[in-house]
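Quick one, probably user error.
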């Protein structure tokens, strides 16, 4: 059984997709051990509570320095003894100690086809605003392992989504979630839980 910790900052629709995936059998061999948020008001925390999943908030606002916050965050994660950390809309820079400790055991969902529209400053709605400004016709989402860079780790799954004429960032964000994120994040967890993802150098190999 793969024990996962899901880290969130906001609405938690990706967390919901994971919860639903575990319930309806799309994600197998997996237990959601806990949910951690940096934001006390995140609706994601409500979703955890409603589903009986232990959750806690570790906010940078509660600590004197970033170093102390980083320590507390790692302590909170370690407390769940996870096999895999899932960053599901977690909009905080991951402490280097955590990326080192959980190398190839931490994944992230990013709302673009990496390497487009990713890296520093590209998160949430900003990604979709940038895609519309650039006028691309195809966007999508990526699940990748987290390394020391921002959105640079080995890619596990990607799914493309078409831009439609007249899209606003909000409309496009929703379509990318529905048609890509909520599908590939649960799928990636299921693949990992069943030992089907192998990382070699900077690439992954999936056994279907
Ligand atoms: C999602 O679109 C996720 O891909 C994005 O934040 C949103 C969270 O939504 N993550 C990033 O931008 C990470 N760089 P949710 O809270 O409803 O799952």
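Nope, works fine. Designed sequence:
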């Amino acid at each position: 059984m793969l024990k996962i910790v899901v880290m969130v900052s906001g609405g938690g629709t990706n967390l919901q997709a994971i919860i639903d995936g575990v319930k309806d059998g799309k994600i197998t061999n997996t237990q959601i051990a806990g949910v951690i948020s940096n934001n006390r008001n995140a609706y994601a925390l409500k979703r955890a509570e409603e589903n009986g999943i232990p959750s806690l908030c570790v906010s940078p606002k509660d600590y004197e320095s970033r170093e102390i916050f980083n320590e507390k965050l790692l302590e909170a994660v370690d407390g769940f003894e996870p096999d895999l950390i899932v960053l599901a809309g977690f909009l905080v820079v991951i402490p280097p100690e955590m990326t080192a400790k959980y190398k190839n055991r931490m994944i992230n969902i990013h709302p673009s086809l990496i390497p487009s529209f990713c890296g520093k400053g590209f998160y949430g709605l900003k990604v979709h605003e940038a895609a519309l400004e650039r006028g691309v016709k195809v966007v999508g989402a990526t699940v990748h392992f987290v390394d020391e860079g921002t959105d640079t780790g080995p890619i596990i799954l990607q799914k493309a989504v078409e831009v439609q004429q007249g899209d606003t960032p909000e409309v496009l964000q929703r379509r990318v979630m529905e048609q890509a994120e909520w599908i590939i994040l649960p799928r990636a967890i299921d693949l990992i839980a069943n030992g089907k993802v192998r990382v070699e150098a900077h690439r992954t190999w999936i056994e279907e």
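The beta strands are 2-8, 30-37, 55-57, 84-87, 106-110, 138-145, 155-162, 197-200, 203-206.
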